[in-house]
Design goal:
Layout (H helix, E strand, L loop, with lengths): L7 H7 L17 E4 L12 H9 L4 E8 L5 E3 L20 H5 L19 H8 L4 E8 L2 H10 L6 E4 L3 H10 L5 E3 L8 H11 L3 E2 L8 H9 L15 H10 L3 E4 L2 H10 L4
Parallel strand pairs: 1-2, 1-8, 2-4, 4-5, 5-6, 6-7
Antiparallel strand pairs: 2-3
Helix pairs in contact: 1-6, 2-4
């Protein structure tokens, strides 16, 4: 589950200049699927192989975690350190891009002896362009540098950005006012009225968070407002029963750890 944070303090800085909402990239399916860290059922998370698998399985978005190296390179790594995923140790921000490129990512599958590379942002853009949209979980990077890279590869209209902090929000609004930004609701949002207050003040382009945080009425309000709510459903118990419950609430988009299975399930339900 993603961290929830209170953004109200920052709203007064930019909300008057941000009355126009920015829609996400044009939908390719009526039910939107986001592959959490790529399709990592078979391949290690946040690797080109995991992203390619999501493309093969006709997923709408691949979620990547963007971080900056010591010398300004952009790479995808969920954790602040490389310890869990690679044969190296240390913080991404303290390593050069060349040092990151020397690392090998291990598979969680004990029968798979193959190793994988930590992908650069440029490699990800090259792989994904015109094939799948990118959901950037903006961990630690410069919005201006990131947006310049997106424009270089002609991908600025094929991404959305999940915001993890107030300064990120301010910096993205300055660097790319038309970029669709996704926010999680703060813990204070418990019902329809508090959700409406948050939406009216924050003016998010999209909503995230855990699917369990939303009631059916809350989802209905987001749909009436034409505000996409694509929450996280990935969990240890993710499967058909959980998907049934989420769909019953009215969601038309989810972030999942099992994109291939969810695509198959949605097709069987006539939702994709």
């Amino acid at each position: 589950m993603r961290k929830l944070f209170v953004l109200f303090i920052a709203f007064s800085i930019w909300q008057n200049a941000n009355a126009q909402l920015n829609p996400p990239p044009a939908a390719r399916h009526k039910f939107i699927l986001i592959a959490h860290r790529g399709d990592h059922v078979i391949y290690p998370e946040n690797t080109l192989a995991a992203y390619a698998e999501a493309i093969k399985n006709d997923v709408d978005y691949v979620e990547i975690d963007l971080r900056t190296t010591k010398d300004g390179g952009l790479v995808s790594m969920h954790d602040a350190t490389v310890n869990r995923m690679t044969n190296g140790k240390g913080a991404v921000k303290d390593m050069t891009l060349d040092e990151i490129k020397q690392l090998k990512v291990r598979s969680n599958d004990s029968t798979n002896n193959k190793t994988y590379d930590v992908p650069t942002f440029e490699q990800i853009l090259t792989l994904c362009k015109d094939k799948i949209y990118i959901y950037i979980d903006f961990k630690q990077a410069d919005p201006a540098v990131t947006y310049a890279m997106l424009k270089k590869y002609g991908m600025e209209k094929q991404v959305l950005v999940y915001i993890n902090g107030i300064q990120q929000l301010i910096d993205w609004k300055k660097a790319a006012p038309n970029m669709p930004l996704m926010l999680s609701m703060p813990n204070s949002v418990k019902d329809v009225e508090s959700m409406k207050t948050f939406i009216n003040q924050a003016k998010p382009d999209l909503l995230d968070g855990s699917w369990k945080e939303y009631s059916r009425d809350m989802v209905s309000v987001t749909r009436d407002m034409n505000l996409p709510a694509w929450p996280d459903i990935q969990s240890k118990d993710e499967g058909a029963q959980v998907w049934d419950e989420a769909i019953a609430k009215g969601f038309m988009g989810l972030q999942t750890d099992h994109p291939a299975n969810l695509v198959k399930y949605l097709k069987e339900k006539g939702l994709r």
